Amino acid sequence: MKKREYWLDLLHHVPKWNHWRELNPEETIDLSGINLNSYDLEAINFSGCNLSHVNFIGSNLRFANLSSADLSHSNLIGVNLRLANMRQSVLFKARLHRSNLSEANMVQSFICESDFSKAIFYETELGESKIYKTSFSHAKLVNTHLGKADIFMCNFDHAIMESVDLRWANVIKTSINFNQV
């Protein structure tokens, strides 16, 4: 059985996948382009994996380890990423519309041309991240930490922003419109 087929089989059993990852930490994992639509991947270890162009629509990635993962061009619409470790992840042109990123660790992530419209950020850590040309339109950011982040040409129009920490953040050419009822 080829490696990729073996990995796909393991993805149906998160504990087996995580055990295999523990035994093979040096293995480079490329799952680019696969369909993981509506999978229950709670607490899965995808750290350092190539997950570009993966379809995760409606999947559960709560408590997932996505640190240093490449999620470029991935479809994460409506995904539960609550308490996920996304530290130093790459989100280039990723779609996270209506996703739940509450209490996720996204510190030092690279986020460019992504869509977080209508996403939920409650106590999410985004400090020291590089965030460029990304939409947070109609998103809800509560107690979210963006300290020391570089935020360039982003759209926060109609976002709900309560107790958002922007200390030492560089916010340049970014649209924030608080027209709310």
UniProtKB/TrEMBL annotation:
Q: Which residues form a coiled coil?
A: none
Record has Repeat as a keyword: yes
| Extent of the signal sequence | none
Q: Which InterPro entries match?
A: 5peptide_repeat (IPR001646)
Per its UniProt entry, which superkingdom is the organism in?
A: Bacteria
Keyword set, alphabetical order: Repeat
Pfam families per record: Pentapeptide (PF00805)
> What's the name of the protein?
Pentapeptide repeat protein
Supply the source organism for this entry. Answer: Cyanobacterium aponinum (strain PCC 10605)
